[in-house]
Design goal:
9 helices, binds thymidine-5'-phosphate, Rossmann fold, 237 residues, 53% helix, single chain, alpha/beta
């Protein structure tokens, strides 16, 4: 388990307050491929659990048996004939299943739901980068998501060059169908996330993810502390 530095939580912040703040919250971590969100996801989940918070972790596409089957169709490099509309609907289908099976029950139990990607990914990849209209995506998202929208969407922002270097250094096997897209596509993905942050600064938290993992994590915890101090509540479910 990741051990947070002792000074991560300022002394004036009680663990009880942090626990109450995170309970029943729906938090999404998102960003371009290679932004380092998976590392931060692991750290944040361990950190929250260390505060006594019950954490439900989910990832997209996937996170359920049906969703994982949809994931393998979506990411299979042989499926290069897939249209962006079919792609968008498959991501949403995986999401609808995940929501009913895992996210809604966990939120109703008062747990912290930490999601690796959500609608923000579809808006960036199939929307800004893929060319679909935001309104079309949001119409389908409302069907898939219903009333369970995230309280916070944390975007780990990184320039395309740093992201590619990280992916190359990670020693992963062959890139999946989305990662194989060209640099211009990934540049648009980044711009898509930044645009969402500009349009909804109350719900989106932007973190500079070009720094080292320790600095990024410290910024992340600071951002949550700031929101807690500002008294930002999760919506009533
Ligand atoms: P992952 O690598 O974080 O597991 O995500 C899988 C890929 O799917 C990644 O390249 C982003 C992409 N993606 C979309 O294009 N649209 C979506 O709605 C989601 C959730 C992911």
């Amino acid at each position: 388990m990741f051990e947070p530095p002792n000074d991560t939580i300022p002394p004036e912040t009680s663990i009880e307050a942090m626990r109450a703040f995170l309970a029943g919250r729906f938090v999404v971590f998102d960003g371009p491929d290679g932004c380092g969100k998976s590392t931060q996801f692991r750290r944040f989940a361990d950190w929250a659990a260390a505060q006594g918070v019950v954490v439900t972790e989910v990832r997209e596409p996937g996170g359920t048996s049906i969703g994982e089957q949809i994931r393998s169709v979506l990411l299979d490099p042989r499926n290069d004939a897939m249209t962006v509309r079919a792609e968008m609907l498959l991501y949403m289908a995986s999401r609808a299943q995940l929501l009913e099976e895992r996210i809604r029950p966990a939120l109703l139990r008062g747990e912290l739901v930490l999601a690796d990607r959500f609608v923000s990914s579809t808006l960036a990849y199939q929307g800004t980068a893929g060319g679909m209209l935001r309104d079309e995506i949001m119409d389908v998202a409302r069907v898939a998501v219903g009333d369970m929208w995230p309280d916070e969407i944390v975007i780990f922002d990184v320039d395309t060059e740093t992201a590619w270097k990280r992916m190359a250094a990670s020693g992963r096997a062959a890139p999946d169908r989305m990662e194989q897209k060209d640099a211009a596509f990934h540049q648009r993905v980044r711009e898509g996330y930044l645009q969402q942050c500009r349009e909804d600064p109350a719900r989106y938290v932007t973190i500079d993810a070009s720094r080292n993992p320790e600095t990024v994590f410290a910024r992340l915890v600071e951002a949550f502390m700031a929101r807690m101090k500002a008294g930002i509540r999760p919506r009533t479910r």
